[in-house]
Amino acid sequence: MPDTNVLDVKNLSVSYSTPRGDLKALRNVSMAIGQKKIVGIVGESGCGKSTLISAIIRLMANNATVHSGEILFHNSNLLDFKEREMRALRGIDISMVFQDPMQTHNPVLTIGQQMIDIQYRDKLSKSKKRQRAAEMLSLVGIPDAQARLNQYPYEFSGGMRQRIAIAMALMAKPDLLIADEPTTALDATLEVQIIKRLEELQEEIGCSILFISHHLGVIAELCDEVVVMYAGEVVEQGSVRDVFHSPAHPYTAALLKCDPGHIKEKTRNLPTIPGEIPDLVDVPAGCIFQDRCSRKVPQCQVKRPLFEAVNEQHSVACHLNNKNADDSDHKEARG
Amino acid sequence: MLSYILRRTGLALVITVLAVSLLFVIIHMIPGDPVSTMLGPKASPELRAALEERMGLNEPLLIQIGLFFANMLRGDLGIDVFSNRQVTDIVLGQVPYTLTLILTSIGWSAIIGIALGCYSAANRNSFGDRLTGVLSVSMIAVPAFVVSLYSLLFFAVTLKWFPAIGAGEPGDFGDQLWHLVLPSLAIGLSWVGYIARLVRASMLEIMGEGHVRTARAFGLPERWITYRYALRLAILPTVTVIGVGMGFLLSAAVFTEIVFSRPGLGKLVIDSITTRNYPVVMGSVLFSTLIFVASTTLADIINALLDPRLRSAR
Ligand SMILES: Nc1ncnc2c1ncn2[C@@H]1O[C@H](COP(=O)(O)OP(=O)(O)OP(=O)(O)O)[C@@H](O)[C@H]1O
Ligand SMILES: [Mg+2]
Q: Do the Cβ atoms of A27 and A212 come closer than 8 Å?
């Protein structure tokens, strides 16, 4: 099985050095993306989603350190790659759509120039490259693409810039597309359109997608699998069906309850999970979610739950998953 | 773009009018009276009255300013009371020397400063970066006239590598260039440090922005990212500072021209102030103002060429 995965992240730990001490943004994170699969990552703000993807493409903040783990892309560990090898991969094999569309493009170069520049490895004529850029823009639903290539980023709305970012990322037909909240700047109808387009393009290109979103509805619509992160750890993962229909982690259950898509009555205040993410500089012992968990048992304070299978495609890190709580010592020793 | 240039030039004209009026008033408030300077204290009242009449000194201030502008538009800045030559001719004769000096100084210092700034930003916290930092701060700290004096003593008097005084033989380009080396070193040196620091800071800021990360995520070569994607943005504040810095350059040029006995606006201003030659003072200060306004305007226009967002602003 593992050799069919495009991406395999194993026990990745990343921290940021801050004046207060090391902020352990990712702790023992493991996840995988199969060929032509779309995997979603959900989790509250600050749970480490962007940190994970910046580690994958190895464009991390200056104060970030990878402490341990492997990031296998087609079975080679990206963490061992030289910068030059990494650069050869970026934009061709792995491409990115970053979170903030207003910051994504160079403000003083036209969109056309930037889209031509990223094709610098191709030995095509400039007009061919331009043609290709225009086609790509039309594909993501930007009308009058030829003329728009001559415009600067500030002449586009946030939603359009996000679509341009998607167009740029897909232009080289990558094996893996990583998209960090690519639909947050879009309104609901546009979001649906873009998701549809993304599905079609994925089908056509045959790439895998790692898709990050706050929006559970979008994940449910688009993804095959979902990874639920909380405060720098993966707490549950599995097929979208399993995780969304029978969440095994209280955090996932709480997230689903808070999702606006689930709420029938009109309300001004969306429900939120009470409490806050624990301090990642001084990570408490035991289960990372214990402070906010409505179903906590005494064990949660002392022991970190291990990842265990609920079924073949679904696993969770929660003490409640153990049918027999006393049995867990035994299981941990085994794991 | 054209509309931006027109708007910006319009603004420059308004600024010029205000600045020149202000200058006119200030020069009028300088104690001492041009008529007695020219005619000596024992001149007869009739003679004094005649000269005052000729110079328009009897009119109210506003009328004098109006007349001044009217004449200025015709290229007439009055007559030098001592030599009886047109002030415009006198000043225009000196402007090229000062402009050449200033442009050479800012030219070499900008090229080296920008290169050092880029190097420092690209190799942040390396030994080279720290060394550049220390050197830059020392360069900024030394005033131009100190560099003038010491470089004159060392390179011209002791080593005799460069000529000590003058601007070189007219028409002999090589000789003129030779005479430019020390003065432009003196004026430009602190700018090297200043520009290096400025470019380093803005490069570091820009290199941390999202679009640079995007460019990297597409595997663009680092050199390309630095010079095509980042420098173009990072240079904007430097262009503005150089534009405004023309004022400082002009005053640095005054000292330097005196130390090296070079002809130029600076020397002209000092000479005409010491002799209370008001029309010439007014004329040379006027040209300095024009140079200053033109350079800030040009800086803004260059920035607008580099950054499309500035063009469209309002
Ligand atoms: N450069 C940095 N230095 C210090 N701490 C950082 C840095 N970048 C991120 N962090 C911290 O690391 C944690 C994870 O951040 P990250 O940006 O990965 O979260 P995220 O899941 O992407 O959140 P969001 O949904 O808001 O984008 C947060 O606590 C954040 O404050
Ligand atoms: Mg994020």
A: no
